[in-house]
Each structure stands twice: as C-alpha cells, then as structure tokens.
Amino acid sequence: MFTGDCLRRFGLEQTKVCIIGAGPAGLMASIHCAAANAETAVFETNTTAGRKLLLTGGGRCNLTHLASPDEIVRSFGPKGRFLSYCLHKFPPEHVRRFFRELGLESVVEKDDCVFPSSDRAEDVRDCLINHAKNLNVRFYFDKSVKRITREGSFFAVHTDREIIVAEKVIIATGGLSFPQTGSTGDGYRFAKELGHTIVEPRASLVPLVTRENWPGLIAGTAVENVKISARIDNKKITTAGALVFTDNGIGGLAAWDMSRHLTDRLPAQKPVEITIDLVPAMNETEFEAYLLGLFAKYPKRTIINVLFDLVPKKLAGFLCRRAGIAEITGSQLKKGYRIKITQLLKKLPLSIKSTRPIAEAIVTRGGVSTAEINTKTIESKICPGLFFAGEVIDVDGPCGGYSLQICWSTGALAGSEAAK
Ligand SMILES: Cc1cc2nc3c(=O)[nH]c(=O)nc-3n(C[C@H](O)[C@H](O)[C@H](O)COP(=O)(O)OP(=O)(O)OC[C@H]3O[C@@H](n4cnc5c(N)ncnc54)[C@H](O)[C@@H]3O)c2cc1C
Predict the structure, then answer these.
(1) pTM of the predicted model as reported, rounded to 2 decimal places
(2) pLDDT tens track for 230-285
(3) Which of 331, 290, 371 is nearest to 82 (CA)?
(4) For residue 271, how far is its CA from the centre of ligand 1 (angstroms)?
C-alpha cells in the first residue's frame, strides 16, 4: 500500500488525476481537470494524441450534431438515459462555444452535422492538445498502461517501466474498433480488474455482409443518398444516407446506421431482408411518372442511358443487365418493364447475413456497464475515485457526430468531477 512516506522513499511520481488515453474523451477530461486546478497526467500508447480523431468524418471531423440533449438521449436507445445529465451539462451548443473560444469555428452542414470551418480533424486535435498543454497537463506519450491497482486511498498506474501514483483515475481508452489507432480494449480489462462488469463488445456502425455475391461485382460504386428499410421484430426500421457497394456487401452511412439494429441478432439468427430505395426523393407513383417523361423525351435511348440520370452509371448498367432489360429502348417500354425498373430502383432487395468484424466498425457497442457508473459524476459505483469517459462506456449512437458528442460530454464531466 502507498503512503506519503513510501512515495517519498521510492521517489514514485504522483499526480492528483491520471487519465489513460489521449483520444477525444481523454483530452476533454484532461482540460476540465486541469482547468479546475487539479494536477493532471495523461498516458497514451501512441506517440501522438487522437489518432482515431484524425480519421473522423473522412478527415474533416463531424464533431457534434445540432440536436437537443433530449433528442440525443432518444437516439441512443434504452441506454441513452444514462447520458442525459452529462449531455445537459455540456450539450452540442456548449461544445461549439468551447471550440470557438479556442479559436476553432464550426459550421452546420447537411442533416445538422457540425464540422470545423477549417474542414480539418487535425485542427480539432491540435486545439485540444495545445489547450491542455497550456493548462499544464503532463503528457506521457509512447507509454502504454499495463495495469491499474488500488492501493489504499491511491491508485497505482503501471506502465512497463514506471508506476505513477494517483488519487483519481479516468479510463478513456476507447473501444475495440480500428485497433490500429490504439484502442485495443485495454480499458475493459482495467475496469474488470477493478470490479466492473463488461457488457460484451460488438461491432456497431459497421459495413454489412450480404448473402448475395453481386455487390462485389460493383464494389466501390457509391450512391449519395439512399434509404434502407428492414422489418425487425415487426417494426419498420429505415435509415438514410450514402451507400457504398463493397466486396461482400454494403457500407456507407445508411448501411452503418442499419447495422446498429442488426448487430445483436446476426449472425446467430436468420438473415435479415432489407430493401434499398435508390431514389428516395420520389415515391413510386412519382418515380413511374418521371420515368415515362424521360422515356418520352428520349425514345431512342436504351434504359441504361436513361437511368444514368438517376443512379451511377456502373450501378444502372449492372442492374439493367442483371434484369435482362439493358437493350430495351424507351419506345419499346411496356408497363411490365416499367414496374420492373421501379422495383429495381425503389425496392432493391438484399439479404444481410452478418456484420463485418468489430475492427472495421466505426464504434463499439458494449463496454463498461452503465449500471455501475454514477450518471451525475461518471464515477464508478464500485471503485471510488475511478471515472470513465468516451467509448469505453457501454453506450453507442447513430452516425452524425453523436459519438464524439458523448466523448466531449462524458470527458468534461469526468474531468471536473475527478478534479474535486
Ligand atoms: C473511421 C472513423 C470515423 C469516425 N468518424 C466520426 C465522426 O465523424 N463523428 C463522430 O462523432 N464519431 C466518429 N467516429 C467515432 C469516434 O472517433 C470515436 O467514438 C471516438 O474516437 C472515441 O473516443 P475515445 O476518446 O473514447 O477513444 P479513442 O479515440 O479510441 O481514444 C482512446 C485512446 O486511448 C489510448 N489507449 C488505449 N489503451 C491504452 C493504454 N493501455 N495505455 C495508454 N493509452 C491507451 C489509445 O491509443 C487512444 O489514443 C469515427 C470512428 C472511426 C473509426
């Protein structure tokens, strides 16, 4: 057990708060901790902070979503209630103000997604780390934490070479997705060793694997805006956004959001049938009328050449060839063909047999059980002085800046509370 005498005798380094992980949650926690005048140290496996943060939003960082705290809570499903307090304390508008005060303006784009005006995730990361350093946060890069032990009223944080003694510890090690960025699930082990229950980690916001092989034939083809529908437990679920055909199925925002509803049942249960609406801006009647207009205008063009106006060339060509109608021209078009085309573009069927592995997921579902964390402090109910922030907690939401918002809100609360 560590005592003041023992710390002096062995010259062990000490800090008030030790944060494990310099991702978005750990960085935000460190800033709130140091701003409250608590001595703060951050350990990070990588040689730099926020490797995953740099990948966010395709390098542009969708840093939050312009929704009210209650809307965000609802979008996270049954576990969302756990987030209510911290989201009300540090909602999206505060996040935008926080970054603005650090010199980083943000803009609201399509579907209320918020991005930095500079369009660079790097700027988000840099302004966090610079601010933390200005507040005297001590960073230990290239230092992987191996173990955390409770020693009386202290924690001992062990790396390969040193032990740092801390009054409080914040675990902000992320989940299991994209492990090449440093999130390899260590936080789950630390939490478990300190008495916590870990809800089995699974892939969420992840590409889907189809029973059909044909998507592989047009892999890489992207459609900007589609709607995907499925009937799950007698409820119609619809997701929207971009779609990309992949070697073994589908990816893109619409598929990732659909994966949230499928990950708990696949591959154990039978495949889930989905339909893809490739032209969601029109209903079926409008679409048929639109087709008639197009064919009347271009009676000599083949169907493929007419559909090019609506969906990418490769996809239109592929679908028409598959349906055996590629060479038909507008003047030959019978009602049966029109119905066929409408079905193809408005209700393209696919059967989902599994999700891609967790390593390819945008976020991890599962993690430290929310039942064992105090919602108002983000402190462990089991191990006083231990806090959690970010994706390591068992909550997961939709695409659109929601995941980072949770890192900011839980990080800010954990940091301020641990500093007390
Ligand atoms: C490709 C991609 C795009 C995304 N885009 C968006 C987006 O635009 N908007 C959005 O809201 N979300 C997005 N996300 C999700 C978002 O990036 C994550 O939810 C978020 O990064 C989680 O933050 P975190 O701080 O909890 O964990 P992480 O970002 O995973 O950070 C954890 C840190 O802990 C470190 N660490 C782990 N173990 C140890 C250890 N033992 N010792 C020391 N350090 C350790 C890791 O090296 C890592 O740096 C995206 C994810 C991916 C993969």
Answers:
(1) 0.94
(2) 999 899 999 999 999 999 999 999 999 999 999 999 988 899 999 999 999 999 99
(3) 371
(4) 30
Quick: pLDDT tens for 62-114. 999 999 999 999 999 999 999 999 999 999 999 999 999 999 999 999 999 99
Using the mean position of ligand 1's atoms as its centre, give its distance from the Cα of residue 50 in Å: 7
CA of 139 to the centre of ligand 1 (A): 17
Q: Is the peptide bond before 267 cis (omega within 30 degrees of 0)?
A: yes
The span from the first CA to the last CA of the chain, in angstroms, equals 23
Question: For ligand 1, what atom is nearest to the CA of residue 144?
Answer: 42
Strand runs (DSSP E) across 21-162, as ranges?
A: 40-43, 64-65, 106-108, 113-116, 138-140, 147-151, 154-158
Query: 364 in ligand 1 pocket by Cβ < 6 Å?
Result: no
Taking the C-alpha atoms of residue 349 and residue 224, their distance in angstroms, rounded to an integer, is: 18
Domains of the chain: 4-202+364-418 (3.50.50.60), 208-279 (2.40.30), 284-348 (1.10.8)
